[in-house]
Design brief:
alpha/beta; Rossmann fold; Glutamyl-tRNA Synthetase, domain 3; 4 domains; three-stranded parallel sheet; 12% strand; binds glutamic acid
């Protein structure tokens, strides 16, 4: 048999914002498709109208646009296998449901919710299956006339898949190998509901994967329990020869503790679990997003790619092109991947530092404006250049003071205010001030003002030459006190660079101010 063309799909249900685990699933599908010169399909699985959330579909599309994950066909992208929204495929599903009914692989069930409840009361661990189906009200126990009468009467029904018990069902998973279960534990799943004339997820998913010629189903581990049922559905339709290969990806686990990653972990530890900020249309609740938090899409992609897969060595920084080249579905791990969000911050640091200062400027400028500061792109780029290698202090979730590299453009602001705003007051109690402002300092600073005043050229080189000559002659070490004058504390870049940035007038003004206040 010739190799099939690789066709994979990402098939979310539009029930809310796309969870970060879904982003990873889509990414792996994308990498796999690109690597094999295949197609990536974007299908919307919206057969459960109760869970439909307006705006979710648009949100998902915008997320992938931001991330640089491109689809070849699907909702909003077009293609020859459409429509790609399941709610627009009702007639297609009806035909296939009828096929299963005609072949005796499925049956109609008229049991009302009350009747089902009563059975659950009566029989412990009730399940609608080979053991119980003959006790229920369905087309297997009712006569053809009774069934026709019920339908003519407008009674609602569901179509159930008739599972043959006692069979070993094998799922051949590219990551997990052979996964098998006995069919006796499966229930006769509902495939279709007359009430809304829509199929359930299972039927629509299988029919569409078949009709859209999907070659590989790459999805989260949470769908593994459905896979045996899906295998049986392929058989029931007679499609076993073109059944897609399965690959169930490892779960994303909590950063700390046990269990799978949830939105609550993000809220508690302060990291987003959604790619973009999400405004819930019902509750109005706003959930943070990676984009708005200042992550670069390349950094997020790189971080997610390594949650459940690695290239077999310790290479960590990989562009999308490299990921496409190196990714190997069969080398994905079976066990869950801990969502180490601190590593995500590290990736952002790495990618941000690769960017020239000019690319930091738009975001930096926005933050400055929010703080009432207007500057020029040139000045802002200079500040970025001077400060991007710095370390910031922060308080971690256990209340401990920690340090990390600048990882977001927004990290710059607390470290750079003094470039744009002179210290208003000088704090004598500040540790750095106390240590570096001595009895004789005011006198030294006065002398330094004299040296600076004499400079026509206020460049780093020119300052350096004059000031070094002066310190050598006088035996002074004025740098820390000078820093106090210009910054107010022990922060900031090289002093010559800072003074050159501020200019002669502003530098001297700050020095005079400090002398007056700290005397
Ligand atoms: N609609 C399912 C979801 O929301 C698709 C699962 C699958 O990929 O089969 O993830």
């Amino acid at each position: 048999m010739s190799e099939r063309k690789v066709r994979v799909r990402f098939a979310p249900s539009p029930t809310g914002p796309l969870h970060i685990g879904g982003v990873r699933t889509a990414l792996y599908n994308y990498l796999f498709a690109k690597q094999h010169g295949g197609d990536l399909i974007f299908r919307i699985e919206d057969t459960d109208s109760n869970r439909f959330v307006p705006g979710a579909e648009e949100y998902i599309i915008e997320s992938f646009k931001w991330l640089g994950i491109q689809f070849d066909e699907g909702v909003s992208f077009g293609g020859d296998y459409g429509p790609y929204r399941q709610s627009e495929r009702r007639d297609i599903y009806k035909k296939y449901v009828q096929q299963l009914l005609d072949n005796g692989k499925a049956y109609l069930a008229f049991d009302t919710p009350e009747e089902l409840d009563a059975k659950r009361q009566e029989i412990e661990n009730f399940q609608y299956d080979a053991k119980t189906r003959m006790m229920m009200r369905n087309s297997l126990t009712l006569s053809k006339e009774e069934v026709d009468a019920l339908i003519a009467d407008g009674k609602q029904y569901v179509v159930r898949f008739m599972i043959e018990p006692g069979r070993d069902v094998h799922v051949d998973d590219l990551i997990r190998g052979d996964v098998s279960i006995n069919s006796s534990i499966l229930d006769d799943k509902v495939l279709y509901k007359s009430a809304d004339e829509l199929p359930t997820y299972h039927l629509a998913n299988i029919v569409d994967d078949h009709l859209m010629e999907v070659s590989h189903v790459i999805r989260g581990e949470e769908w593994l329990p459905s896979a045996p049922l899906h295998v049986l559905l392929y058989e029931a339709f007679g499609w076993q020869d073109t059944m897609p290969r399965f690959a169930h990806l490892p779960l994303l686990l909590k950063p700390v503790g046990n269990g799978k990653l949830s939105k609550r972990d993000g809220d508690k530890l302060g990291f987003p679990v959604f790619p973009l900020e999400w405004h819930d249309p019902k509750s109005g609740e706003v959930s943070s997003g990676y984009r708005e938090k200042g992550y670069l899409p390349e950094a997020l992609v790189n971080f997610l790619a390594l949650l459940g897969w690695n290239p077999g060595n310790d290479q960590e920084i990989m562009s999308m092109d490299e990921l496409i080249r190196l990714f190997d579905l069969s080398k994905c791990s079976k066990s869950g991947a801990r969502f180490d969000y601190v590593k995500g911050i590290w990736f952002n640091h790495q990618y941000l530092l690769q960017k020239p200062a000019e690319e930091w400027v738009p975001e930096f400028d926005k933050i400055l404006r929010e703080n009432g500061i207007e500057s020029t792109p040139e000045k802002e780029a200079q500040v970025v250049e001077m400060m991007k290698q710095k370390v910031i202090e922060y308080v971690d979730n256990d209340g401990n003071k920690k340090k990390r590299n600048i990882s977001f453009v927004s990290d710059l602001w607390p470290l750079t205010k003094f470039f744009f705003v002179a210290p208003e007051t000088y704090d004598k109690e500040d540790k750095f001030v106390r240590k570096n402002w001595k009895e004789t300092t005011a006198m030294e600073m006065d002398e330094l003002i004299g040296v600076l005043e004499a400079l026509d050229d206020f460049s780093v080189e020119s300052q350096k030459e004059m000031i070094e000559a002066w310190t050598e002659a006088r035996g002074f070490k004025p740098w820390n006190a000078w820093r106090v004058c210009l910054v107010g504390t022990g922060q900031g870049p090289d002093m010559y660079e800072l003074a050159a940035f501020l200019g002669k007038e502003e530098t001297i003004k700050r020095m005079e101010n400090a002398i007056a206040q700290l005397k």
